[in-house]
Each structure stands twice: as C-alpha cells, then as structure tokens.
Specification:
The chain is an alpha/beta fold and about 260 residues long. The chain has 10 helices and 10 strands. A hairpin with a 2-residue loop joins β4 and β5. α3 packs across α5 (about 120-140). The chain binds adenosine-5'-triphosphate. This is ABC transporter ATP-binding protein.
C-alpha cells in the first residue's frame, strides 16, 4: 500500500474530440484538505466525477487506500467510504432533515431483510446506533433547529449544510465537496470553513474539494492543485499555487509577468 488515502495516476477523460482531463496525477494524505482550483472548464468537476465513478477514466488508475477502484460500480462507491456533495444541491426535498441524514446513514445497515422483518434485538441495536450517529452529526453541524423541517422549505445556506450532513452520515473516509461555498453569503462561507475544519480535525475525514472562493481555499486547504484545459498547472501550498505564474496566466488570460510586480 502506498500510504496515501487516495491516489490518481495519469487519469485522462476524452469526450469526443475534447480531452477534458489530460494525464492528471496526484496523491492525497489521510486527514488532508486537498483543493482543486482552475478557471471554468478546467476539468475539475470531471476529476470529481471520475473519483465518484460517475465517469469512467479513458486512461489511468485511481486508488483508495492502495486498492484499485478505477472499475468499481458507481453504486458501491459510498460503501467503500467515498461521499460527495454537488454544485447544485441534491437532497430529498420533500423529506425532513433527519430523514435525509438517516437515508445517508442506512448504507451501513448490516442486518438482513429476515431479521428486520422479525425486528430482532440486533436490528434494534443497529437502528439505535444509526440514529445516534445521525444525532451527533446534527449536533456537530448545528442543525438541531431544522431537524424536523422539510428540506424544501429551508433557506439555501441551510440546505447546503444538510447536504454536507447527509454526506457525513455515510461515514466517509474521503469526502468530495463540489464548490461548498457556491451560493453562500460571506457569513455562511465563514461557517462552511468552520465545518470543514471540524470535519477534518474532529472526525479525521480526508477532503478533496473543488472551490472558486480563494479566501476559503487559503484558509482550509493543506495543498492545492491548479488545473487548466484538463492539465495540471501547479501543485503545492495554497499561497505558492496562487502566486504561480502559470496559474495567474490561466485566470487572467495573459502572461503573469505583465501584472505581477517584481
Ligand atoms: N459529459 C460531458 N460531455 C461532453 N463534454 C463535457 C462533459 N462534461 C464536461 N465536459 C467538458 O469538459 C470540460 C471540463 O469540464 P468540467 O465541468 O470538468 O470543468 P470545471 O473545471 O469543473 O468547470 P466549472 O468551474 O465551470 O464547473 C469542459 O469543456 C466541459 O464542457
């Protein structure tokens, strides 16, 4: 085993004539917050979709704890310990916050249909443990006030936190956050930064994040990968990557030397 929680080795994705991801490699250590940045169309979401197995890589390999998961079926990803949130929130809108989190938690139900039908003590114990786990997440994310509210009636910022809670309810080793600050105001983005810090420090979960808000990126990321046109531009500490001439050029569309004071 490599010692990394996650590894991408030379992954590429071809859509017809377009190489959306082109020979991208990186490793993510356990407990790390690893952020992918880049201008629109850089290939960030496509990398996420490869990791969560929504897309097949045209070439390359992805490994979780040293295990090759390149060909794993999408429905098995959650049980392997990978959870994700989406750019556009995906929740059961006409269920309560608690129900949404319980649905997430139920992927770990280990009882079989017969023992469930008989409601044996083992089933009751498993159900109690799931509910306790979900209540801990509700506490951690300050969701108690919305616990029994329908998701559809919640403000956007609260729905974003519920989606994070639903992902945490699956007990992930690796959490993929797709633009966690999108649609949030400054105060809500601050809160999101706190949640991300708590998740990694208190729960020991590893995070791979796609994010545009550079304040959030600098605050929570251990390392940053910058992409443009499917390729890796730079990889390193947040301030190093943001100062990298190729990264500045990708964002502003002309060589960095024209704008960076010496
Ligand atoms: N299913 C698809 N079919 C065809 N082209 C696609 C598909 N998904 C993404 N692309 C293209 O691949 C390229 C990379 O897209 P991707 O969504 O990964 O970029 P991104 O960095 O996440 O951009 P954004 O910040 O705008 O979300 C784009 O040119 C996009 O149009």
């Amino acid at each position: 085993m490599s010692g990394h929680l996650f590894e991408a080795k030379g992954i590429s994705v071809q859509f017809g004539g377009l190489r959306a991801v082109d020979d991208v490699s990186f490793t993510v250590a356990k407990g790390e917050v690893f952020t992918i940045i880049g201008p629109n169309g850089a290939g960030k979401t496509t990398v996420f979709n490869i990791i969560s197995r929504i897309y097949d890589a045209t070439t390359g390999t992805i490994l979780l704890e040293g295990q090759d998961i390149t060909q794993v079926a999408p429905h098995r990803v959650a049980s392997l310990g990978i959870a994700r949130t989406f750019q556009n929130i995906e929740l059961f809108e006409h269920a309560t916050v608690l129900q949404n989190l319980l649905i997430g938690a139920h992927i770990h139900r280990t009882t079989n249909p017969l023992t469930e039908a008989l409601f044996l003590p083992s089933v009751r114990r498993a159900e109690v443990a799931l509910r306790e786990h979900v209540e801990r997440i509700i506490d951690l994310l300050d969701l108690a006030v919305h616990r029994d509210s329908m998701v559809a009636g919640l403000p956007y910022g609260a729905r974003k936190v519920v989606e994070l809670g639903r992902a945490l309810a699956t007990k992930p080793k690796l959490l993929l956050l797709d633009e966690p600050s999108s649609g949030l105001n400054v105060e809500e983005t601050e809160d999101m930064a706190f949640w991300i810090e708590d998740i990694t420090k208190d729960l020991g979960i590893t995070v791979i994040m796609v994010e545009h808000d550079m304040t959030l990126v600098s605050r929570v990321s251990d390392r940053v990968l910058a992409m443009n046109q499917g390729r890796v531009l730079a990889l390193g500490k947040p301030d190093e990557v943001q100062r990298h001439p190729a990264v500045i050029e990708a964002y502003i569309g002309r060589p960095a030397l024209e704008v960076v004071p010496t």
